Amino acid sequence: MSKFRTTEISNPEFESNNLRFITVQTPNLKGRGDICVFVPSGEDLTNIPIITLLHGVYGSAWIWAHKAGVHLTALKMINEGLIKPMIIAMPSDGLWGDGSAYIPHSGFNFEKWISEDVVEAVIENIDSASAISSLFIAGLSMGGYGALRLGSKYPRKYKAISGHSSMTNSNQMNLFVEEETNYVQSASDDQDIFELMYQNRDILPRIRFDCGKDDVLISHNRSLHEKLKKVKIEHIYKENEGAHEWTYWQKHIKDTLIFFNNLS
Known about the structure:
Blueprint (H helix, E strand, L loop, with lengths): L6 E3 L9 E8 L4 E8 L11 E5 L8 H6 L1 H10 L7 E5 L12 E2 L2 E2 H16 L9 E6 L1 H12 L6 E5 L28 H7 L6 E7 L5 H13 L5 E5 L5 H16 L3
Parallel strand pairs: 4-5, 4-8, 8-9, 9-10, 10-11
Antiparallel strand pairs: 1-2, 2-3, 3-5, 6-7
């Protein structure tokens, strides 16, 4: 029995480049949520890993595929034997204002939409996925924050987490959005990446994150890296040439796919 009251999934006759589209109705959004899904070909594929890949502000479910071609990157890497087949689920953030930050607020639970509904929708509708598929989560900017936060808050759920050009606290949303929404959570340690990682330091999944040297968020990423080093929380941190831009994310998503592949 489906968890969702209604589900719509794209017709394979009209799909292209291994992309499928799922729309489900969920109480967490008080309505519908969209997921763009890269599904590798292969009749014998079962229980393959599921990567939840989160977008940044202003974006939606389509943006990782149609601004960075992540599905084409993954397909090429699979065909070249660089990574094993894996599903990439690219949900909308819930489409609240300029960005939901993937946290509960304004009467919606954007956190559960990602951490519960998205994975369940993929398992229900994609044959090569199952309840024993390994789970990974990654994202860029606001999506990097969502990935690092949810992976740290639910450390037993995800096998590894990765962030590109990530915000490290929900108070950094004001750098990007015009809404005057209070993204602050009732518990301050529930909105700060370092505090969550420190709180769950003994059971964290594997962690990597990177940032461009000219990125508006570089100081926040450097600070997180230094704090993690100080308390000896194992992680991988890289700085690369580039700014807060799609050319950077298109290039470095490969690092995330290889990182996850080596752990799957």
